[in-house]
Amino acid sequence: SKLLEEKTSLVTGAGSGIGRASALALAREGAAVCAVDRHIEAAQETAEEIRRLGGRAHAVRADVAVEQEVKAMISEAMDEFGRVDCYFNNAGIGTVESNSRGKSLAQLELADWQRMIDVNLTGVFLCMKYEILAMGEKGGSIVNNASIGGLQGLKNAAAYTAAKHGVIGLTKSAAIEYGESGIRVNAVCPGHILTPLIMKSSNLNPDLARMNPMNRLGTMEEIAELVVWLSSSRASFSNGAVFVADGGRLAA
Ligand code: NAD
């Protein structure tokens, strides 16, 4: 039988990259998926792909940085599925979208910083808040997408790095506050993964692939595997933990 049979899930940023790959992987293991994205057409494409594979999916438009939209996203998922067991808070932007590509800390404008924090940190806070309220005493799993930038500094990415360190702080705080309610909260830290985001921020800098002992970029599926496992009962004692998949970069 499948790992997530009878389970329901919600993935933010499900219209592209790691979010889409994870939505598909959750569906392959039997979970119904609420695919959320700021771009509704992208979310709908993911949902359609899941349905083509015989799965159950529903697409929702929401900007995770806007409280009312996050609230509405959770109500829509609850209306559609009755309950949601596994959440993957993955939506995020890179330095290009926040107008901070190539800028060192002192070159950052307040607006650049604010945009990054709004989406990559406040967005995760807002999602967690309404997810936890919706889960109540039923329990479930939350996985937050941080980054190796949540564990180490990245050059010319101070706002991104600060936001991702913050995501790890939120993960650990919620894990100790809600462990008793049966809510497990964990974070994944991808290294450099081949997605549209990394292509934009690096212009596919060939050195990126060599920045880890395995000499290659990771695939979206390699992160999706971790998300599926963490969302399942196989990870039943993992809570407040940080899972790195970076080809050994942090070890080097
Ligand atoms: P991507 O750009 O391919 O996909 C991100 C998706 O999130 C897009 O569909 C986008 O529309 C959506 N999104 C962006 N802002 C949103 C918002 N405010 N509300 C709702 N949806 C929004 O990027 P990706 O590489 O798949 O990255 C996904 C996550 O993984 C991000 O949090 C990123 O920081 C993290 N990450 C990526 C890498 C990498 O190497 N690609 C490494 C570490 C961490």
Automatic annotation (TrEMBL):
Leader sequence segment: none
UniProtKB keywords: Oxidoreductase
PROSITE patterns recorded: ADH_SHORT
InterPro entries per UniProt: NAD(P)-bd_dom_sf (IPR036291), Sc_DH/Rdtase_CS (IPR020904), SDR_fam (IPR002347)
SUPFAM superfamilies linked: NAD(P)-binding Rossmann-fold domains (SSF51735)
Pfam families in the cross-refs: adh_short_C2
TM region positions: none
Annotated family: Belongs to the short-chain dehydrogenases/reductases (SDR) family.
Descriptive protein name: NAD(P)-dependent dehydrogenase (Short-subunit alcohol dehydrogenase family)
